[in-house]
Amino acid sequence: MSKDQMNTGIIEPQVKTYWIAVLIGVPLFILTVLLWWFLHYQNHLDRHKRVEVEAHKLSTYIKTDLTNRIRALNRIALRWETHKGTPRMEFTKDTQNYISDMPGFQAVEWVDKSYHVRWIVPLAGNEQAQDLDLGFEKNRRIALKKAKANKAPTFSAPLDLVQGGKGFLIYFPLSAEGEFDGFLIAVFRITEWLDYVFNTHKGSEEFNSFRIRVTIDNTPVYKEDGWEDYKALDLDAVESLSIRGRRFNIYCRPTAYFIDNSISRLPEFALAIGFLMSVFISYSVFLFLKASNETWKTNIIKRDLEKEIQERKQIEDSLHETSARLGLATRAGKVGIWSWDISTNQLVWDDQMCALYDVPPDAKPNFETWQNALHPDYREKAIALVKDAVEGKAVFDTQFCILTGDGNVRHIHAAGRVERNNAGNPKRMIGVNWDISHLKLTEEALQHQTELQQILMDISSKYINIPLDKVDSEIDRALSETGQYVNADRVYIFDYNFEKKTTSNLYEWCNKGIDPQIADLQNLPLEGAEDQIKAHQQGLPMLVPDISALPEGTFKEILAHQNIKTLITVPMQNGEDLMGFVGFDWVTARYDYSEREITLLNLFSQILVNILLKTQADKMLMESRKRLDLALQGTNAGIWDWYVQTGETVFNERWAEITGYRLEELEPTSIETWMNLCHPDDLAESNELLKRHFEGELDFYECEARMKHKNGEWIWILDRGKVVSWDNDRKPLRMTGTHINVTERKNAEEKIRHMANHDGLTNLPTLRLAKDRAHIAIQKSMRNKTLSAFMFVDLDGFKNVNDTFGHESGDYLLKEIATRYTACVRKSDTVARIGGDEFLVIINEIRITDDVAHIAEKLIQATSRPFIQNDKQMNVGASIGISIYPNDGDNIDELVKKADSAMYRIKKSGKNGYTFAASEKVDPIE
Predict the structure, then answer these.
(1) CA angle at residue 35 from 34 to 37, to 5 degrees?
(2) Peptide bond into 376 cis (omega under 30)
């Protein structure tokens, strides 16, 4: 034992102290390396996730672009079906506009029934495809037959285009008058199309970060330059997309630029810190053991410890600097970083996390702070997921909503991982949060509009056969459903009583917590609501984003009394009749509505108009039936009793009164009495119905027939009866029944038939009646060997009248046009209104076409005279296309179509003139 050992009483251990330090330091360093590997691997997974997100976005771009293109092409196909074909010039114009708006098409073609390409737009560059037989090539033929059989748009497989290059086709089957009429084909040049789709959405960041490759049904069709250069990075992602039976695979590959900008320095930082900590701990153990072994060297040990403390401070300063850099990176990406000490329940949030949760930066949050910030609808699920992640049952990667201090809702995407001790017990959880509110709001807005459209469709379909006693409850339900989907606080229906100059609340729905107002809103004066009424009379909604901005007056006082902040009222119109309006109130907060919502609310208003009109009609019908029952109960119906075998018939007094007689004037009565009064044309039908009833084919006899009234007029009688006794041979003995005057109903039905076949504004025949008269005109021309003319008239400048003077003036002009045109033709001819400002004039039995030209000139001159209304002068012209039967066709649709085409030639050559379908000459009227 040395002298120093004797003085200190400490015996130096025989084991070398540095071996113990090494045994501790090496495992710590190995753990550090494992942490470095884990963080490095996690960084690799995060980069791959970003590539997958990019691949999904690209697939969404492709799906959205194809959906929009198919929808637009469907409109062209629908127009073809509606017009029973499309003139080539109109087809060319429509498709040229469409192709110029949406790059990526090689051409848009019309293929006839024999699968031959007839029309190509544009023709330049596509001459090789002109008159090409698409049925010759198997791939195209299969797609054509599939589209024709399914009557739906069909994609071809990728193919080599006649013009060169890779492409695919979409086939739209066409029909005219219910018959197959060929195809509308859109030819896609895949490279140009996908370049347009991707370049439209990709910014410079995405362009530098990714390369794209696309296959259709596993056939490579697209590959960006540089795709093969980055194959070794092993971060590719693929997104599959199925459209109309074709599978699109979108491959996304990151570039070196992406790798350079997504590398995290955290693994290297952790490695460096771990290495330093391992060295520090090992060295500390070494020093501690050395101090125990050499207590007599206290001064030397003290100096060594001070040195180590200084080095530790330098390391901490370096850590603070690194942490500051990490904070800048998270703020730039608006990503909040958090850690949760599970044992103490304490949270550590960076500044960005505090900003996301609207918490002061100096606050000390805990688990309850986060839990209380969760929206009630998401709280249970989010907390359960955290619990499962801590227990190792799930990965914490989710979305939820939080409530900020001012009550606003914020959408959060959160991800985290759990750190565990050597025993596998959870120790700490770290993760990130970022705000996805803007993305969620966009998704919710689209979903909101789609659901509102579906609600309106459901409401419209449900009211087709709704019982009368359920109408009020169903209207209330419709108001409720629509109000909830536009987040309104109150939805209601008001009527307009312009005779009393009042308006009243008929129906009302209120959201929870909103006081109903219907009881206080009855017989309100229209004074002060002039601006609203004026807008409604023009078919426009009344929009008041902020009630407080209205000028002072009665209207504002009524709205303010109801605590309304934002208001929309939509007119309810039946033709020119303004019935009332539908209102939407927002009380709890102001509301920013979209143009799309206004359009849907207008549709909702029209649905309610149809419901109310149907309800009124049903009520009138019910009242009519009640009155009929009362009439029968009060013996207002004539009653007869017929002894079939003898012909003897007994009538009551009411039976005679209906025909204008007293009963004694008709005596002696018999079946001959009825037959003498019945119209000869109706006797045959009556006898046939009686025969069928006697033979058991009909349960009862019912016949409407005309009878001669005493005043000489013919009245309509509804006779109903039933055999009440039979003989042993099953021959009728006695029959009884009723005799009712239905003249008014027959006249009403005639009026309804008139309304169904005549335009409500001008009282001119509609296209339906015009076709019937055209058929008669053709039959006359066939019998008499004469001509018939079909004149398609379109007004020039009518839209300008509507835009300048309003729809009321436009309606006045149309009625005047109807009067003038009717005066220009014979009574045997027909003037019909077949569209907004389109008329069809049918001229019967003409000998030469010069007579038709003379009438066309009269129509144009009548149109050209000024129209005066309330000191306003309106001027329009007329473009007239003329077809002649039998020269231009032998059926009505063909003749009208040719007249329509001739009219378009006038339109394009200067308007205000006429031309014949068989002539290239245009005759303008100066």
Answers:
(1) 65
(2) no
